[in-house]
Amino acid sequence: SLSERLDSIFRNLKGSGYLTEQNIKDSIREIRLALLEADVNFKIVKNFIAEVEKRAIGAEVMKSLSPGQQIVKIVHEQLIALMDTEGFEMKVYNNKLTKIMMVGLQGSGKTTACAKLAAMYRKKGIKPMMVACDVYRPAAIEQLKVLGRQIDIPVVTEDTKDVVTIAESALKQAYSAFTNLLIFDTAGRLHIDADMMDEVARLKTHVKPDYIFFVADSMTGQDAVTVASEFYKKLEFDAVILTKMDGDARGGAALSIKAVTGRPLAYVGTGEKIPDLEVFYADRMASRILG
Amino acid sequence: VKVRGVVDDQLYEDLEEILIKNDCGTEMAERIITSLRKEVKEDRITDPEVVQIYLVDIMQNILFKDIPDESDFFQPPALQPYVIAFVGVNGTGKTTTIGKVANRFAQSGKKVLIVAGDTFRAAAIDQVAIWAERAGVHIMRSEPERDPASVIYDGVASAVAKKYDIVLIDTAGRQHTKERLMKELQKIDRVIKKACPEAPHETILVVDSTTGQNAISQAKHFDEAIKLTGLALTKFDGTAKGGIIFNIKQNLEIPVRLLGVGEQIEDIENFHTVRFVKAFFT
Ligand SMILES: Nc1nc2c(ncn2[C@@H]2O[C@H](COP(=O)(O)OP(=O)(O)OP(=O)(O)O)[C@@H](O)[C@H]2O)c(=O)[nH]1
Ligand SMILES: Nc1nc2c(ncn2[C@@H]2O[C@H](COP(=O)(O)OP(=O)(O)OP(=O)(O)O)[C@@H](O)[C@H]2O)c(=O)[nH]1
Ligand SMILES: [Mg+2]
Ligand SMILES: [Mg+2]
């Protein structure tokens, strides 16, 4: 772990009570390695380390900590501060319709996230409905219907390749059924596919969702910054869902995405089953990134 | 690649940065740059363009080592059947890759059977059945929730009896950290052998190009559970460069065999080292 590696650097150091510039220079390399190994984007790592340096120089070493532990504490606190969700909470009401849309790359976990979120809010007494807007992937519509049946939540489907037509039908059905949470599943798409990015922008224009969730795979590497910023430029999504956190990916993409879009990490996928969705906690993520 | 006009520490830093941002990882990047510095010094190179040529060479050699000639995945030994299993974590593109591969084999006149071995995920069987139809090949399927090992056994046994040329086995996505699911994979491997002792002839780990360092853990754990013979690197039509393959080749000796370059049935290629390393630097 980072704190062990830093402690071995400081093994021969006599405690001075304060972190010196040399202490920090020696630790920088280890911190950089730890963050890159965790898949934090290399540009974000550069900025992050500059901030750590500022904060660490002259910092007092608490009596209970070694210099290495003190530096890790500073790094940990800074990670938490950067990934703070600022109390993001999706506002869903019993007497009006809240519309949300899931977007992201192929295979990130959008369809599963629709069902997980629907089930989570139904437990809170909300009446959800899901909309199958992936008209491309083989059996995508069937997948959402199967999930809908599993959790007894209605799924809107229309026999058309035009997602806006499906959306219009869904809005009508949602209002007449007194639905209060309408969840749009969309096809996985590349940030560099202009036609597909236009499609989801058009869908946003017609649906006017209250929340757009960017669904990202926690094992994403350096590319997370490019992908997230393109999706953000096009859609200005509201929050992020980080999936497959039940694996052993360190999840540095979380920091990269937050740093480059400023949007909060709202939920975390922790498994393939419907209940496997949790609220995001910055301190847990920070510990995970540091290994 | 646009780099500085002189061979100095900054050049090596810039080149290392390219490796890092393409997901090579710090260990591999350091190793490659160390080798590069050594060779450049030995040959007294002063032209940064030549340094880059050396770099390309080093990286190609990592991929070429022990497999100097890249075999065509679509011209396997003429065994009846030649059995290929596709495994990997969730959502990487296993099912889609099977559809593409089935089509490619069918186009060359092979008798292909797809085995719908993901009996767990919603509409997984329907999904692979559509691909079988698109590729014009047969499918062995069951109702959902059936034990995947039993469907897979039936599929391989049937392929042996009916003299299929190719069997492509789809399996459910699974996290390599889940012991129960990795044990299930080992059971699948055992029943394949029961039906056909030499099988599976290929076990392909399907990895998403956008994956970071976790790909190494994936490869390690899957290889420990069942012997992997190669990787399929999917979604290479995105902006990620797939640098994790260097570490996987260097440390686990698992080569990339296939490249997925889109969502259509035609979007599959044999892995080509020279092309890949060239693309790495553009
Ligand atoms: N282990 C694990 N698997 C997950 C999680 N979320 C989704 N999955 C799995 O990941 C795979 C892909 O999920 P989907 O919901 O189909 O992903 P998608 O983004 O809708 O995919 P496309 O529509 O093709 O872009 C499936 O096998 C899911 O069961 C998670 O949090 N943990
Ligand atoms: N752009 C692009 N998308 C791909 C490629 N390969 C697969 N996909 C997409 O990735 C998504 C997931 O593909 P699947 O074949 O369902 O992946 P899987 O590994 O079988 O998923 P699970 O069985 O749920 O683990 C789908 O939307 C595919 O269309 C590729 O090479 N390029
Ligand atoms: Mg989907
Ligand atoms: Mg599949």
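qc> The CA atoms of residues 81 and 165 of chain B lie 5 Å apart.
qc> done
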